[in-house]
Amino acid sequence: MPGRLVPHLTAATLLRVSAEGAATALVLTVQARTGRAADAGFLQTALTLPYVLSGPVIGHVLDRTPRPRTVAMALAAGYAAATALLLLTAGRSPLVLALLVAAVVGCTEPIVVALTSMLPRFVPAGRLPRAYGLEASSYSVAAIAGPGLAAAVATFADGSSSGLPIVVAAAVGAVALAFLPLPGPRDAPERASRVVTGGLLVLISNPKLRSLTVATTFAWLGFGGVAVTAVLFAQHIGEDASAGGQFLVAFAAGSLLGSLASARWLKARHAGRVVLGGLTAFGVALASVTLAPSLSWALLCFLIVGLVEGPVFTATLMLRQRESPPDRLGQVNTTGGSLKIGASAVGAALTGAFADTIGPVGLLLAIAACQLIGATAGLLLLRARWTAPERSP
């Protein structure tokens, strides 16, 4: 197992570093070339919206193709090439062309998440919990390294070069997939009508998953504007735009610490409460960022925001694994992720549209409100489930 897990984690982490850093690099690139960081919100929308459909489809294809490694390598290579082209054209070419390139990135990026569903093919069942723990750490490390690399290049070179390490990480990750032996599926092919809808049906029919999905979708509606808002808030407190990348690194560091703590102490039976309580704390902590008077205080606030967000992600994975049918877990994960990404795309577009009107402080409060709305909606759905048997004859 270790011999196969190492190349998997290497390739997956590099691709995730690219995906996590792409948003920051895109904002810094557009800011450097046009002077308007908010314009990157429209490109982020074009990048993430295709994810809503391509995510479940890519997950379905990888589950059933006899040559998953070939498909994964092709998708990863396409993602790397499209990302490079997007960062070259953003802020230089007509907006329509950049939007089209961003859509291509969105069609291929789900491979970054879909690789997780490959673990049961080469990891023994008894070692899967440890493998999933390392997989979760891969996301957290990438969330720190991606924005951090983009911000570092922007600080020591210039913002228009911030995408260089992002593209390199994607290219190397795609090559690393060649060293990962992936066997084909054991199950028979599924009806085409379930390619997109299979996971969605599970999310809708299961009360706990329905509550989770609604809550996290609202939360990610706000979260989609964090990258742009971080850069704008950095400028609001008198710092360089690259400080926005530092805010995102602080957030990711806090999220990593929160995830590690929850992995040790969080019990599956408490996962639902942790999601709703964590989103509430997330919203309150994010609102407190608006009170930060300086860079150091803002960094501390973003670290705290990450600390309360980390357990939410861990609890989400636990709930999906516990409540989903075993033969649907991969599709449930990609579908749930696609809904969050789709909401994030809408949030990014709204951020770009209202940035000049309400400013960075207003944006932070709006993002915080989305977390509180999500937690409230999730709680109401759970209460409706709990009271339903009392109304039954």
Automatic annotation (TrEMBL):
It comes from the Bacteria. It is found in: Cell membrane. This is MFS transporter. Gene3D superfamilies: MFS general substrate transporter like domains (1.20.1250.20). The keyword Nucleotide-binding does not apply. The keyword Transmembrane helix applies. Residues 208-393 form the Major facilitator superfamily (MFS) profile domain. The chain crosses the membrane at residues 43-62, 71-89, 95-115, 136-157, 163-182, 218-237, 243-262, 274-291, 297-319, 339-355, 361-382. PANTHER family: INTEGRAL MEMBRANE EFFLUX PROTEIN-RELATED, STAPHYLOFERRIN A TRANSPORTER. It is a multi-pass membrane protein. SUPFAM superfamilies: MFS general substrate transporter (SSF103473). InterPro entries: MFS, MFS_dom, MFS_trans_sf. PROSITE patterns: MFS. It comes from Actinomadura vinacea. Keywords: Cell membrane, Membrane, Transmembrane, Transmembrane helix.
